[in-house]
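Just curious. Protein, please.
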Amino acid sequence: MSLFDLPPIPDIPVTGETEGYPVRRIFCVGRNYAAHAAEFGNEVPDSPFYFTKSPASMILSGGTAPYPPGTTNYHFEMELAVAIGAPVFKCAPEDAAAAVYGYACALDMTRRDLQIAERNKQRPWDLGKDVENSAVIGPITKAADFGAVAKQAIELTLDGTTKQKSTLNLMIHDVAAIISHLSGFYHLRAGDMILTGTPEGVGPVAPGNVIEGTIDGLTPVRLTIAEAA
């Protein structure tokens, strides 16, 4: 018996299934689109690099989240999420697809001012990235139903105005390369999610804004920003 009860972490709905996908860990890939790296004056990385978000920071698509404390520059980032469905460790890129359960639209919400301030001091990005309600995940589509990750359009609108627009083939490191690389450092297993990076066009939000992100073939992700709590 525990000393106290923790708030439950919601399972992510899966299209065509009555049971949801439980989340164990959330890995995020930084600077995985060249144009996004360029818009902040950053170099394109030679290999993938990562930060993490705790599952407690996750919110399902369609929710409303308050503007977070400690920031005046809260940004949207639209991403493809990969849900791992089988154990994988030190796999070759050509074997990575067998570990994928499915894909989803996701938002990596970011306290940009805190991220940049900590980065400039060569400190971890946690204050900027692992924010309550900052990992917004849409329903998962199984890999077999989605097909290969190729030139699908990835877009984000803010109050109906397009802010981000790109294609998945412009990722610097593709899904297979990311899984292969990450599995060299972690024993990945079902319940692990990977957010694969955002294209250019990221920007700030304000209370009252409605964010919607889409990827061809997946259920959209949607978030409403409320007043600070």
Remarks:
- The first helix runs from residue 34 to 39.
- The helical segments are 34-39, 112-120, 126-129, 143-146, 175-182.
- Residues 25-226 form a domain with the Fumarylacetoacetate hydrolase; domain 2 fold (CATH 3.90.850.10).
